[in-house]
Design brief:
This is DUF3054 domain-containing protein. InterPro entries: DUF3054. Keywords: Membrane, Transmembrane, Transmembrane helix. By secondary structure, the protein is an all-alpha fold. It has one domain. Helix 1 crosses helix 4, helix 2 crosses helix 3 and helix 3 packs antiparallel against helix 4. It is globular and about 40 Å long. The relative contact order is 0.17.
Length: 115
């Protein structure tokens, strides 16, 4: 459970940083809009990928590589956005920065011997 909470915190901080970088306030609604679709897919996949049952860097990266783009696609569908070039630029930036946040928090977990 501590690893899941660290991953969730990493995703929430990533979403908060994204809101601030676009000049938007950090609100519960903004965080929910940006995190819930990714979290939904993440939670669907993580039992099958053993993200928390057998936590390894490989399982984390596989979960991220599958859940994050699928969650962003779901978010785009729910918000009624298009899938033009702008979406794919957003996807690339979001993938890079979300991975940075996840790796920082998992690295912290390793240092604190939570993992």
């Amino acid at each position: 459970m501590p690893l899941f909470l660290l991953d969730l915190l990493a995703l929430l901080l990533f979403a908060g940083a994204g809101l601030l970088s676009h000049g938007l306030p950090i609100t519960l609604g903004g965080l929910a809009r940006n995190v819930l679709p990714v979290l939904f897919v993440w939670l669907l996949l993580s039992p099958f990928l053993r993200t928390y049952r057998q936590p390894t860097w490989k399982n984390l990266l596989l979960t991220w590589a599958l859940a994050f783009p699928a969650g962003l696609w779901l978010r785009q569908m729910v918000l009624g956005g298009d899938f033009g070039v702008g979406f794919f630029v957003f996807l690339g930036v979001a993938m890079a920065f979300s991975l940075l946040f996840l790796l920082l928090f998992r690295g912290l977990a390793k240092l604190l011997r939570l993992w």
